[in-house]
C-alpha cells in the first residue's frame, strides 16, 4: 500500500529535513506486519515527493494479532488472513507504519529546520487505494483540505451483473496549506476511520494515542463522535471515556453517558442534545450576567471555549484568559481568530500565561473570575496557594467555580476511575461544599451552590457549581 506527500515549498527538498529522511536514499524499516520503505521519486528545488510504501507480510500480520480476534475486520472468513485487500488498500496498517517511520515529523519536531516545522506548507497527499466507508470530504474538509475522492471502478462486467459499478475503494487526493505535523496526524487518525477497521487489538492506551494525534483539531471537529467510535473500534466504553475528555476541550460535543445505542444506530443522525460542556458554559455565563460584571477573568481558560461566548456579549468590556500552558493559549488565540477580528473587539480580549498557585498583580481589579473545571487539575497540597492567589490576592467581587461531581460517575457506562487522566481528585457534593464554605469564610465571601446537567435522584448532577460573592466591607 502506498501514500505520497508532495510539496512545492522552495526549496522543496526541505521535506527531507522535516521527515528526517535523506531524499537520495531508500529507507527501510521493520514493522510488526511487514516492511515499510520511504523513498523520494521526485526531489527537485521546486517540487519534492516522499513516498511511504508498506509491504505487508500475511504471516507476520497474523502473528501480530497474537491469535486474538481482529476488531471490526472486513475479512472474517477462514482464509481472510491471506486473501484480503491489506497489501493494497490504505488502512490502520499504513497509519501504524506512518507513526513509526515519521515519528519526529508527527510531533512537529525538526532538529535541522525547527522554524519550518512550525510553518504551513503547500501540501498534496495522495493515497491511490483507500477502502472508504463514508465521506472522505466530511472528515478532511473541516481541517482545511480540498478533497478529491475518485471511486475506483470494478473490472468490466456485463450490465446488471452483481459486481457492475464502482468498488468500495477510492483514489484520494488532499491539497492544502498546513503544517506537515498536522497533515500527518490527520492521516494517522482518519485512514483507519475511513476504512472502519482496526487490524490490531484496541486497548485503553489507544485513547491516549487518539487524543495526542487529535490535539488542536479533533475536539472541534463536527464528526468527532463518529471519528472517536470508529478509531476505537466501536468499543463503547473506550469511546465514552475519550469523548468525555474531548468534551472538556470544546463545547460542541455530544455527551455519551449511559449510551445504549447499537453501533449501527450510533452512525445515524440523532436529534442534537445540548452537551454537558455547553450546559456548563451557559450556566457560568448566566451567573456572570446576574453578577453585573463587565471585567472578567477566565482562569485556566484552556483553548478558549468560555472566552468565545464572552466575546459575543458586548456587556463585557474587558476579558482576560489565563493558562499555565503556552500551547493552550496558542490554540485559544487561533480558535478566537484574534489576528483577524476588528481592532476594537481585539482590544477587549487578552491572553496571559499565568500559574494560579502564584500571586499575579495583573489579576487584581476585576469584577468576576471563573475557574471552570480547573481546581480538580491542581494537586490537593497546592489548593491553599490557589485559594490565596485567587480569593485573597486577586479578590474579584464574584468567583464562579465548577468541578465534576464524582457521585455521578457511576452513571457513565464503562467509566472507571476519574473522568480525565489529568484530574488529581474528584469531589462528592459534600466535599466540594465543605471546601467552598471554608474558602469563602477565610477570604470574606459568601457562597451558594447550583447543579449543572441532568439531575439523578441519588447522584445529583454531573457538574457542581459554586458562586462566591464578596461580602460588603
Overall description:
There is one protein chain. The chain is built from 17 helices and 14 strands. The protein is α/β, with parallel strands linked by helices and 473 residues long. The protein folds into 2 domains: 2-201, c-terminal autoproteolytic domain of nucleoporin nup98, CATH 3.30.1610; 276-470, Rossmann fold. Strands 2-3-4-1-5-7-6 form a 7-stranded antiparallel beta sheet. Strand 2 and strand 3 form a beta hairpin. Helix 8 (205-213) packs parallel to helix 10 (236-249) and helix 9 packs antiparallel against helix 10 (236-249). The longest helix is centred in the middle third of the chain and has 16 residues, at 180-195. The radius of gyration is 25 Å and the shape is elongated. The model is unreliable at 64-74 and 251-272 (pLDDT under 50).
Amino acid at each position: 500500500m502506498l501514500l505520497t506527500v508532495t510539496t512545492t515549498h522552495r526549496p522543496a527538498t526541505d521535506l527531507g529535513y522535516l521527515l528526517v529522511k535523506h531524499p537520495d536514499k531508500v529507507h527501510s524499516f521493520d514493522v510488526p506486519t511487514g516492511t515499510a520503505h520511504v523513498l523520494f521519486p521526485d526531489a527537485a528545488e521546486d517540487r519534492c515527493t516522499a513516498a511511504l510504501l508498506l509491504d505487508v507480510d500475511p504471516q507476520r500480520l497474523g502473528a501480530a494479532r497474537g491469535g486474538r480476534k481482529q476488531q471490526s475486520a472486513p475479512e472474517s472468513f477462514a482464509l481472510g488472513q491471506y486473501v484480503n485487500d491489506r497489501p493494497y488498500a490504505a488502512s490502520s496498517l499504513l497509519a501504524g507504519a506512518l507513526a513509526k517511520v515519521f515519528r519526529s515529523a508527527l510531533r512537529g519536531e525538526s532538529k535541522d529546520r525547527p522554524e519550518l516545522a512550525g510553518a504551513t506548507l503547500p501540501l498534496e497527499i495522495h493515497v491511490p487505494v483507500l477502502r472508504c466507508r463514508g465521506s472522505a470530504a466530511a472528515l478532511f474538509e473541516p481541517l482545511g483540505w480540498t478533497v478529491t475522492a475518485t471511486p475506483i471502478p470494478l473490472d468490466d462486467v456485463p450490465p446488471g451483473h452483481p459486481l457492475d459499478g464502482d468498488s468500495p475503494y477510492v483514489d484520494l487526493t488532499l491539497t492544502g496549506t498546513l503544517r506537515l505535523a498536522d497533515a500527518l496526524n490527520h492521516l494517522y487518525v482518519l485512514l483507519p476511520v475511513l476504512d472502519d477497521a482496526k487490524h490490531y487489538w484496541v486497548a485503553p492506551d489507544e485513547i491516549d494515542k487518539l487524543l495526542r494525534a487529535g490535539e488542536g483539531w479533533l475536539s472541534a471537529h463536527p464528526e468527532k463522535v463518529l471519528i472517536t467510535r470508529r478509531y476505537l473500534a466501536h468499543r463503547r466504553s473506550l469511546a465514552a471515556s475519550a469523548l468525555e475528555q474531548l468534551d472538556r476541550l470544546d463545547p460542541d460535543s455530544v455527551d455519551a453517558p449511559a449510551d445504549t445505542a447499537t453501533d449501527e444506530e450510533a452512525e445515524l443522525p440523532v436529534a442534537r442534545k445540548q452537551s454537558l460542556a455547553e450546559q456548563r458554559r451557559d450556566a457560568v455565563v448566566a451567573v456572570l450576567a446576574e453578577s453585573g460584571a463587565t471585567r472578567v477573568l477566565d482562569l485556566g481558560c484552556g483553548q478558549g471555549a468560555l472566552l468565545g461566548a464572552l466575546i459575543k456579549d458586548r456587556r463585557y468590556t474587558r476579558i482576560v484568559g489565563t493558562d499555565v500552558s503556552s500551547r493552550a493559549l496558542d490554540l485559544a488565540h487561533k480558535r478566537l481568530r484574534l489576528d483577524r477580528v476588528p481592532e476594537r473587539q481585539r482590544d477587549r480580549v487578552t491572553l496571559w500565561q499565568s500559574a494560579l498557585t502564584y500571586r499575579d498583580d495583573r489579576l487584581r481589579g476585576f469584577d468576576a473570575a471563573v475557574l471552570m473545571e480547573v481546581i480538580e487539575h491542581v494537586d490537593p497540597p497546592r489548593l491553599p496557594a490557589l485559594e490565596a492567589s485567587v480569593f485573597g490576592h486577586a479578590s474579584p467581587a464574584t468567583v464562579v467555580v465548577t468541578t465534576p461531581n464524582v457521585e455521578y460517575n457511576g452513571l457513565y457506562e464503562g467509566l472507571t476511575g476519574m473522568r480525565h487522566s489529568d484530574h488529581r481528585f474528584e469531589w462528592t457534593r459534600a466535599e466540594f461544599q465543605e471546601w467552598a464554605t471554608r474558602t469563602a469564610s477565610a477570604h470574606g465571601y459568601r457562597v451558594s451552590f447550583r447543579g449543572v446537567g441532568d439531575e439523578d435522584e441519588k447522584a445529583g448532577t454531573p457538574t457542581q457549581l459554586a458562586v462566591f460573592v464578596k461580602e460588603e466591607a
